[in-house]
Design goal:
Layout (H helix, E strand, L loop, with lengths): L7 H13 L6 H8 L3 E10 L5 E12 L5 E8 L4 H17 L5 E8 L7 H15 L8 E5 L5 H15 L23 H16 L4 E2 L1 H7 L2 H9 L8 E2 L3 E5 L3 H12 L3 E7 L2 E4 L6 H11 L10 E3 L11 E4 L18 E3 L8 H9 L3 E3 L1 H4 L2 H15 L5 H26 L3 H20 L4
Parallel strand pairs: 3-4, 3-5, 8-9, 8-12, 12-13, 13-14
Antiparallel strand pairs: 1-2, 2-4, 6-7, 9-10, 10-11
Bound molecules: glutamic acid (GLU).
Glutamic acid binds next to β3 and α13.
Amino acid sequence: MSSSETNPFKIAQSQLDNVADRLELKKGIHLFLRTPRRELSVNFPVRMDNGEIKVFQGYRVQHNMARGPCKGGIRYHWNVSLDEVRALAMWMTWKCAVVNIPYGGAKGGIICNPKEMSQAELERMTRRFTTEISIIIGPEKDIPAPDVYTNAQTMAWIMDTYSSIKGYSVPGVVTGKPIHVGGSLGRNEATARGCMFTIREALKHFDLKVIPPEQWRKECSEEELDKDICDGDEGTGYKLNKATVAIQGFGNAGSISAALLSAKGAKIIAVSDSKGGVANKEGLDIPKLIEHKSKTGSVIGFEGANDDLGPKQVLEFEADVLVPAALENQITDENADNIKAKIVAEAANGPTTPEADRILHEKNIFLIPDILANAGGVTVSYFEWVQGLQQFFWSERDVNVQLREIMTKAFHEVLQISEKEKVDMRTAAYMVAVKRVADAIEHRGIFP
Ligand code: GLU
């Protein structure tokens, strides 16, 4: 693979290849895991608001189901391709395995520009796509969820369409649903909350700008302690002591990471979205910035900032922590050398190319890989699915406590392998995940 390769599927395959020898993976199992188990490509017509009929192309790819039903989001984006969906599906398999939840990996996508479509058009496209892929999804088979430019409303349409086909309500067919139709408290914030927990464990590991819980409890108010309990910390969590953070992307993962990290005591000093970026060395007021973005559609022009940045400049900002929370291939061989953060936490899927990985590792930058850093979303999806199957719903506090336990345990399992095997955190996470999947395949055996 060339050092400037940006095909996400080739990158995903090379990441697997990188651990196959270390794990002494059998050749057949390695080859089986290199390609998706099942791929569905659909072309379908949608009536647009002006009466015209447009044909859209979409995919649902199931990478592996050895550990349980397939799980993974559906994205709407103009750059969706079959290879991108294949890579994202493979990453879901590893993500579910690294946090040890009983799922395999899948992903879906439609090539479209959701920014230029009305709600009615989005609804018709979603419902027709659901019908097309209904032959392979289902609560015991493959469970979609939100991803880039899809949300709880999209999931409600999928759930309703699938239920109409079946003739009864099937809430377990998707996760990330609105609360009123069986969604879970805490699901919307889960990717960011999980990411925050891993960042905090990394800061603790380096003893970098953290305040121990005993000290914090002496200083905090009743109200802060109550909030901490609902956050899943139970008054026992470390606080961040003005650790500085730069965030690329201000969608679900980026904006909520900013809010949660700043509530824990971090200083968010630079933020960008697809239109541009803003910075303030004293720290941006995140609730106000979120309000500004929801009013104007972008972070640019925010009053509380004293610097304007290009969307990619944020990556090179001098900060303790960098959170790429946008799309793939943002940190490449072209800019990796300019990254100044001490910790990189990949809230996005696939933001760093393998060549950039090598450069960051050489520069001693501690990278928390996507399959670990952003696994909070699918973890609470799992909680939502379990709650739906049991028809028994948890409090937000219970969701967050369970999420914290799973994320911190996974972080330390990966860290331990990384120290023992003297490998970077991505390699360590792959070693944990791929081994779990390979063991499941070995135990189930090859049929017939
Ligand atoms: N799309 C999210 C991810 O990439 C969530 C997937 C899910 O909850 O199934 O992890």
